[in-house]
Design brief:
By secondary structure, this protein is mostly helical. It has two helices and no strands.
Length: 49
Amino acid sequence: MPNKKPFALRIDEQMMKAVEKWASDEFRSTNGQLEWIIHEALKKAGRLP
């Protein structure tokens, strides 16, 4: 399992509620959902090694 680096994120309250709902719908934690969203965006942009 890769090492994880803690990171503070400031996010709009409405956006956070949408992410929390999406995470709940997909049976993920909010943190897991944010990691998945970022991973998918990086993959789509061709930025993953």
